[in-house]
Design a protein that fits this description.
Elements (H helix, E strand, L loop, with lengths): L1 E5 L5 H14 L5 E5 L11 H16 L6 E4 L7 H5 L6 E3 H12 L3 E5 L5 H10 L6 E6 L14 H16 L3 E5 L7 H8 L3 E2 L1 H14 L23
Parallel strand pairs: 1-2, 1-3, 3-4, 5-6, 5-7, 7-8
Helix pairs in contact: 1-8, 4-8
Length: 236
Amino acid sequence: MRILVVNPNTTASMTRKIGAAARAAASPGTEIIAVNPAEGPVSIEGYYDEAMSLPGLLKTVAEHRDADAVIIACFDDTGLDAVRCMTEAPVIGIGEAGFHAASIVSNKFSVVTTLSRSIPAIEHNLVRYGLASRCSKVRASEVPVLDLEHEGSSARAKISAEIGRAVSEDRAEAIVLGCAGMTDLAASLSAEHGLPVIDGVAAAVAIVEGFVRIGLKTSSRGGYAAPVNKSNPAVA
């Protein structure tokens, strides 16, 4: 089984971290191909960065059409629907995976993400996935994404403090980490706070491995039909 894990931003150190987390979660014999585009934003923090990352993301996926499954390793699930139109392989975003995992292991969960500007996109996705009622709150730790790549930064401490507030104020029973760059923090934060702290990368690997094993593919009917080849009549 070959799983393509695409980090839509261009920060290679984050891609290596994501790849390590995916390999740790994968079954023996599963090959993880962790990649990022050559061009695009160095981090995705809000709607504009999402839009700017799409050309590189779609090009990268097109270069790996033989993958058995695709994981979009951005918590906003950037380009998720477009990628599903490109392949019959199962495609999942790490936000989607994290939300669904939390809804199975807890009654109520909170999300701890990076900056406040990311909250609206996450809340929108929770509504879209039908899980808004299960999420107590989407919280921002006010940690810029790239601070997660700097050893010795205060990022982990700020995230941990926000988890503590989610437990005491939201009565959260589980936490979903709202950024792929937090993937290496899940286990230690879970032990520290005594509740499930969910990394969407690991959750996504577990889900798509199961889908591949049972032969479940993306529907090609309706919204996820393959793109139509088009010409510009003004140019033709």
